[in-house]
Write a structure and sequence with these properties.
47% of the residues lie in helices and 19% in strands. With 310 residues, it is α/β, with parallel strands linked by helices.
Length: 310
């Protein structure tokens, strides 16, 4: 019995060591509810000890925080939001960086052999698929855009539309006045509208014009966010923040525990999406097709979470 006890005491340090978890630092750009939901999802999946740091606003203070994080040599840094992603990708040397919650990450030059991330946007296939599920007779989809900023997006949309036998109708506009002109009489040109975000179309004035056109002309609008659905768009598909965090946690496990090289991975598309629909618009359009039933069936088939607005 004494010998067994001695053996057990000898093994205790090894067991304790085996239970130690690698340390991950979460850098947050701001104290937002969406970021909190993402971190909750990340914590539920990541096999790691997690420390959270809210970045200050002043660049000098941000640099000092990043230096302290670098000196602590964490196994990985999860950078949440644009300022955190920028600071981490530039200041952490060889420490692996996983970024997320960065709209149109391509604009931020988040590059490096130690950097990988999860995008906030996709290739528009989910949005177009949901539109077809809601309104199978739709064939022509108008895309209001500013050619100075959105030509790559437009090409992505064209490629996604081909798989669904949809025709994309470009509606070019360089400012709010041109956008209003492009949307005049749009029902003669298209069966639905798909919203993209660029410096022109993403402005509050143009977004309001798109939603008002959708409402008055009874033309379905696929929006970018649930807030726009609340205002009158038919539907939107956006990442579930909790699901995005869970996806980041699984990716972190691959980087930390499976020793996957970040440079071998492409920036991932969001896996967990939330479908938002507005019943008022769905009922109005439902004279031509059972819009609500089509969307609910589509959400069930794709495993989407659903938010429904009156």
């Amino acid at each position: 019995m004494k010998r067994v006890l001695q053996l057990w005491l000898c093994l205790l340090p090894m067991i304790a060591g085996a239970q130690e978890l690698p340390r991950v630092v979460v850098l947050k750009s701001a104290d937002l509810g969406a970021y909190g939901a993402l971190v909750a999802g990340f914590t539920s999946e990541a096999r790691a000890e997690i420390d959270q740091i809210l970045l200050p606003r002043h660049p000098d203070e941000i640099a000092r925080v990043v230096e302290r994080v670098k000196a602590g040599k964490p196994a990985l840094v999860l950078a949440v939001g644009p300022s955190a992603a920028n600071a981490a990708s530039r200041g952490l040397g060889e420490i692996p960086v996983l970024f997320t919650m960065v709209p149109y990450y391509e604009r931020y030059s988040l590059e490096g052999p130690n950097v990988v991330g999860i995008a906030l946007t996709n290739d528009f296939s989910p949005e177009l698929s949901a539109l077809v599920a809601a309104l199978p007779n739709v064939k022509r989809v108008g895309v209001l855009h500013d050619p100075r900023y959105s030509l790559p997006q437009l090409e992505d949309i064209r490629l996604a539309a081909q798989q669904l036998e949809l025709n994309i109708v470009p509606l070019a506009a360089a400012d709010a006045a041109a956008a209003k002109k492009a949307l005049a009489g749009v029902t003669a040109k298209v069966d639905a509208l798909l919203m993209v975000s660029d410096r022109t179309v993403g402005s509050a004035e143009v977004v309001r014009e798109l939603i008002e056109t959708s409402r008055t002309e009874q033309i379905p609008l696929v929006a970018l966010a649930s807030t726009q659905v609340q205002e009158g768009a038919l539907l939107s598909l956006s990442p579930s923040y909790l699901g995005l965090g869970q996806q980041a946690g699984r990716l972190a496990n691959r980087l930390i525990h499976e020793r996957v090289d970040p440079s071998a991975l492409a920036v991932a598309r969001p896996e967990a999406l939330e479908l938002s629909i507005t019943l008022a618009q769905a009922r109005s359009l439902g004279k031509r097709a059972p819009v609500t039933e089509g969307l609910l069936t589509h959400a069930a088939d794709k495993g989407l979470t659903i938010r429904v607005f009156p």
